[in-house]
Amino acid sequence: MNDKLKRGGQRLALLSVVTVLGACSWFTDFKQQPKMDPWESPSDTIPMRGNPQFSVSVYGSAAPGYAVSRIALPGTIDSMASIPNPVPADARSLHNGRMYYQINCAVCHGEAGKGDGPILAAKAIFPPPLNGPAAAARTDGYIWGIMRNGRGAMPSYNRIEEMDRWDVVNYIRGLQGKYQVDVGPVGLPGETGDKVPGYSQMGPTRPSPYWHHAGAQAGPTRGGVIAPTGATGTPVTPAPTDSAHAPAAADSARPVAPTTTTPKTGGER
Fold it and tell me: Which residues does 96 contact at the CB level (< 8 Å), separation at least 6?
C-alpha cells in the first residue's frame, strides 16, 4: 500500500513539474526559436524593382496565344484588326510610344516613319513607310497585331508588352499627323533612367506590406513605390505606376487591357 502511494506521489510530482515547465515562456520544445521573420531583414525594407520581362500577366490578354496564333501570316494578323485600342493617346501614351518606337522601330522604318531607317543602306531591306496612306488606312488592331506576330521581313516585337504596344500604335498615328508628337530618340545612346521605358507592368505585381526598422509599418507596394499611409495607419491605395517614367512616377490614367479570358489567367509569354 505504501509503495503504491509512493509511486502515485512520484507520478503526481512529475506531472506537476511538466505542467509548470510547459507554462514557461522559454520552454518551447523548439517550436519557437529566435529567427528572422518575413519583412524583418534590412533588405526587406527595400521595395521590389518590378517584374521580369515576360512575366505572366494578371490582366489577361486581348489576343491570348491559345486563341490567336503567333504565326506571321496575313490572315492571322487580319483576325486582330478588329481589336479596339483601349489606350487614349494622351501625353503619357505618346511619350512612352515614342521611346519604344525609337528603340525598336526606327532602325527600319526611320525616326519619322518614312521607311528610311539605317537598315535600308546596311542590309538593302526596304521597310514600308508608316506615314503613308497604306499604313494610315490600317486599323489600330492590325498595327498592334503586326508587332505581336511580325510579317514578311519584320520579326515579332512581342517583347514590347501588350499595353505598351498600344502606345506605339498611338505614336505611329502621331507620325501620320493625327497627333502632335516629337520625332527622334528621347535621350542619347547609353542614357537610362527616364530616357528609356520602365519595367514590366503586365507581370503579377502584388502589394505586400513590410516593416521599417523604426517600428512603423509601411503600406503596400506596387511597382516599387511605397504606398503612403493615412493618419490612422491605414494604407492609402497607390496609383498605378507608369512604365514610361521612373519607377516612382504615378499614372492614374493607364487603362487595363481588355480581356478575352478570365483575369489573372491569360497573358503574354
Answer: 164, 167, 197, 242, 243, 244
- The candidate with the shortest Cα–Cα distance to 246, out of 190, 193, 174, is 193
In this structure, what DSSP letter does residue 70 have? -
Task: Give the closest residue to 172 by CA, choosing from 109, 245, 256.
Answer: 109
Q: What is the pTM for the complete model shown?
A: 0.59
269 Cβ neighbours under 8 A, 6+ residues apart:
54, 56, 65
- Residue 30 falls in which region: left (phi positive, over 0), alpha (psi -120 to 50) or beta: left
SS3 107: helix
DSSP characters for 164-221?
HHHHHHHHHHHHTTSS----S-SS-TT--GGGS--SBSSS-------B-TTSPBP--E
DSSP 109-162: H-TTSSS--THHHHH---PPPSSSHHHHTS-HHHHHHHHHH-BTTBPP-TTS-H
In the predicted model, what is the mean pLDDT of residues 133-152?
A: 95
pLDDT in tens, 245-267: 333 333 434 444 444 443 333 34
Q: Quick one: which of 57, 166, 149, 52 has its CA closest to 101?
A: 166
